[in-house]
Amino acid sequence: MPSGTMKAIRVHEFGGPEVLRHDEVPIPEPGPGDVLVRVRAVGVNPPDWYVREGMRNIPPDKRPPLTLPAVLGTDVSGVVEAVAPDVRGFSVGDEVFGLLRFPSLEGSAYAEYVAAPAAHLAHKPDGVDHVRAAGVPMAGLTAWQFLIELGHDHPSPFQEAPHRPMALNDGTTVLINGAAGGVGHFALQLAKGKGARVIAVASGGHESFLRELGADEFIDYTKSRPEDVARDVDLVLDTVGGRDSGRLLRTLKHGGAVYPVFPGDHDADEVAQRGVTVSATQVRSNGPQLAELGRLLDAGALRVAVDSTYPLAEARAAHERAARGHIQGKIVLTVG
User: What's the pTM?
Assistant: First the structure.
């Protein structure tokens, strides 16, 4: 097993992208149930900059504890370097990918090596390179757990009732708000795989990309408001959220549902009056579900769009790219 030090991206204080530091730190040792992964690529996700900023978008009483200095990151693709004695199913040299320790925010993936729970990993498909594999875990599992199968019984911080995905088929119409982003472009493909009709909402520059992925209808939100043109939708997957999100209720038919990936503003009286449902969950690490996504990737039934890549040492530039928005697919850090 490697010993000594490695490079990692850490925050020593909360703030903007400028607080990201390229540090020398000890190589972690895998504990029980862990494997040590030599990292080849890391996916960049919104929780990374939430942590960097000190979780200021979360009410103080709901913020998870954060200890500084902290290594950011949860999404990883790499090669197994060492395996704890109690781990089965993984061997040294295996190529793996995973969403690590989420939602605890202790994934520590922005590094050359990471100690990863074996239960959070899956074997990387042979036909998918590390860059694209690193773009899958959080975004892909979010789409899967919202749309296909929750896969766990942990209580949600967003609602008392467990989230139950709506059955999708060729009689279902799904509107995806923010369809070009990480979660959105996976959700579009998963919904199409179930036979659903998909309306993709994004800015105009993403239209050809989303139609290539299978979108049946495209709404350029810079020219038309979705609630003015879409009607009788069964399900809205809203990857944008925010104070203006309640307007999407107007697109739904009676009995429909909206799934807010990011917290939105939905008036309870209007929800009841329209006879619709608002349901959310929090994505969790899940190796078996990631293996299902891997099989779809291997079969060509799911593809990963990569917006841009940056070397690990340039994590600041990756976060600055994320802040500019209009992302098509995923931002990925390359390692080694």
Answer: 0.96
